[in-house]
Specification:
The chain is α+β, with helices and mostly antiparallel strands. The chain has three helices and six strands.
Length: 184
């Protein structure tokens, strides 16, 4: 016994234990694997979210085109997305929200492009636009594989289609495209 105070023991005598280098490396490897799995899940969730936003955007465009044709276009459609953002004189309301009215539109990692067949000798719409008889809209990922995996398209029939191949060259203005499947 020591008379002057507590007895000091050496670290080995106390049984103190720390982490060895091998144990630390194993923990770091496990954390790395979990982070990789989490990132893959995050990317998948991000792509799925972008694709859902595109489908909602195409549905909104179809609804805006229908409302435009009924109230402003004399059964004809707006030639551009920007035209759907122009307020109708009777209501003072635009047919589509301002964040969707650019030509071409880049939103949620997708590029939307709209076109249509001009009506020959038709009177202008209520907001001064030359109408189109039919239209089509395509939406392709701006960075394929990162912002989205599938491409989307819709037309005057107001049905949304999806495929892993773009619709930009072969989406008809009416009817089903030659490839892809209807989004339900």
């Amino acid at each position: 016994m020591s008379i002057g105070g507590p007895v000091k023991r050496s670290a080995s005598a106390a049984g103190a234990r720390g982490f060895t280098l091998v144990e630390l490396l194993i923990v770091i490897a496990i954390v790395g694997v979990l982070a990789a799995i989490a990132m893959a899940g995050y990317r998948h969730a991000r792509v799925t979210g972008s694709e859902a936003a595109v489908v909602a955007g195409l549905i909104a465009i179809n609804q805006a085109q229908f409302a435009f044709s009924q109230t402003c276009g004399d059964q004809r459609y707006s030639p551009t997305l920007a035209g759907l953002g122009v307020p109708a004189p009777a209501t003072g309301q635009a047919f589509l929200s301002a964040d969707m009215t650019a030509d071409p539109l880049l939103k949620s990692g997708y590029q939307y492009v709209m076109s249509g067949t001009p009506v020959v000798e038709a009177r202008q719409t209520c907001n001064g636009l030359a109408p189109v008889s039919t239209y089509l809209v395509t939406a392709d990922p701006s960075v394929p594989g990162t912002s989205g995996i599938r491409s989307f398209g819709t037309n005057s029939d107001r049905v949304v289609y999806a495929d892993t191949v773009t619709f930009s060259k072969d989406m008809p203005e009416t009817g089903a495209p030659s490839h892809g499947a209807e989004v339900k």
